């Protein structure tokens, strides 16, 4: 079961108590700054900063490791592909032995490509961990309220919140289906990869049916409560409608860092090389 990726953390930490608008600014920075830099040093520093924020917010090292392991096969594949065919490749790392027919003495793996592959891996990990950090430190209602406060229509914000709530529910239902299979003598986790993929494909049918049933029940509940999606609503914590001075500074810092990085790249080429 992979519920560790969506569990909520205690709200005692500074980051968890921060306003959602500040967290959205961090997500915007994490999703945009990664494409400004090609430097492995800058990308690794940014990744270390995100990991540091996760640790300070109470995310355990085991959880971070599990999150990385989810995408590790894709990261390895990306690194190998970039090492083989990246246009940045200049310094050969591996050369085919001269005695090999047709390909003898051919350079097929480059150091610059390997480094750029690591840059691409950082571009995958940074937004993934940043989104995970925000979702693990925010209540669904706070996410909706934050979206509304930055101008997102309430209907769209409510749809986003509903989707966010459905993710852990689907994981729970999937685990229940797997437990039912174990009671029938089929251990999904203990069989081979090919058989596991086939078994998981068969499990999608009841999972989809359960999801459709729950969605229909939610629709009936919303209709019974005369849900209209009107933006004219009151909030549970009206005092949080105003940002604190620290949050304003943090949001300003996010935009300033992005503007400085973009100007440095366009005007001076800062961060354009892999090293």
Short description:
The protein has 275 residues and is mainly alpha-helical. The protein has nine helices and two strands; from the N terminus they run ααααββααααα.
Can you give a write-up of this model?
With 275 residues, this protein is mostly helical. Helix content is 66%, strand content 3%. It is built from 9 helices and 2 strands, in the order H-H-H-H-E-E-H-H-H-H-H. Helix 2 runs parallel beside helix 9 (245-268). The radius of gyration is 23 Å and the shape is flat. 20% of the residues are buried. The model is unreliable at 1-5 (pLDDT under 50).
Protein topology:
Elements: H1 14-17, H2 20-32, H3 40-56, H4 61-85, E1 92-95, E2 107-110, H5 111-136, H6 140-149, H7 154-183, H8 193-224, H9 245-268
Helix pairs in contact: 2-5, 2-9, 3-5, 4-5, 6-7, 7-8
Overall pLDDT score = 80
Q: Helicity, in percent?
A: 55-70%
Ends distance: 39 Å
The DSSP helix count reads 9
- Protein structure class: mainly alpha
Which regions have little confidence, pLDDT < 50, spanning 5+ residues?
Answer: 1-5
Describe this protein with a few key phrases.
275 residues, mainly alpha, two-stranded antiparallel sheet, 2 strands, 66% helix, 3% strand, flat, disordered N terminus
């Amino acid at each position: 079961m992979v519920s560790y990726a969506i569990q909520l953390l205690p709200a005692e930490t500074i980051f968890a108590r921060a306003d959602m608008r500040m967290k959205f600014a961090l997500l915007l920075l994490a999703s945009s700054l990664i494409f400004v830099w090609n430097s492995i040093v800058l990308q690794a520093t940014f990744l270390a900063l995100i990991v540091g924020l996760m640790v300070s917010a109470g995310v355990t090292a085991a959880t971070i490791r599990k999150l990385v392991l989810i995408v590790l096969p894709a990261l390895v594949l990306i690194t190998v592909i970039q090492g083989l065919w990246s246009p940045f490749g200049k310094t050969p790392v591996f050369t085919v032995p001269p005695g090999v027919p047709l390909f003898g003495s051919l350079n097929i793996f480059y150091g610059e490509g390997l480094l750029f592959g690591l840059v691409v891996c950082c571009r995958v990990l940074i937004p993934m961990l940043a989104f995970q950090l925000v979702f693990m430190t925010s209540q669904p209602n706070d996410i909706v309220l934050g979206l509304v406060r930055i101008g997102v229509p309430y209907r769209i914000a409510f749809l986003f919140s509903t989707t966010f709530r459905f993710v852990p529910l689907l994981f729970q239902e999937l685990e229940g289906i797997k437990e039912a299979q174990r009671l029938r003598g089929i251990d999904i986790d203990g069989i081979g990869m090919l058989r596991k993929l086939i078994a998981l494909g068969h499990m999608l049918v009841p999972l989809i049916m359960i999801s459709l049933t729950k969605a229909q029940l939610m629709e009936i509940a919303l209709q019974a409560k005369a849900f209209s999606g009107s933006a004219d609503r009151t909030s549970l914590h009206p005092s949080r409608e105003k940002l604190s001075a620290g949050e304003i500074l943090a949001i300003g810092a996010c935009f300033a860092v992005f503007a400085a990085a973009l100007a440095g790249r366009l005007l001076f080429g800062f961060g354009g090389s892999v090293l």
